[in-house]
Amino acid sequence: MIYITAYKTFQFTKMKPPYCSICDKFIDQNDEGGLIYFKKRKSDIEWEKRMEREGMVGHPPYAAWFCKEHYQQAKKLSNLTINQAFEKIKE
Ligand SMILES: [Zn+2]
Hints:
By secondary structure, the chain is mostly helical. It is 45% helix and 9% strand. It has 4 helices and 2 strands, in the order αβαβαα. Strands 1-2 form a two-stranded antiparallel ribbon. It is globular and about 35 Å long. Zinc ion binds at residues 20, 22-23, 25, 66-67, 69-70.
């Protein structure tokens, strides 16, 4: 049921529900985790321009949610692009 609700919310807003990108833990509002924006790749800049042009809102491809266990680690890597950062986190 929770899954269905989250899925519908996702469909409606086109935003990613807040699950940790590393361990899939649901991040609730009282958690100390959060959304981290990584360095934009060329494709991310193009994505932004396209969204702006079409007046759309969505989850940026260079942003990801992290639970409190992974948030600090991810934050330290936010000067990297999202794929570089994930390679390091998953090492
Ligand atoms: Zn996590």
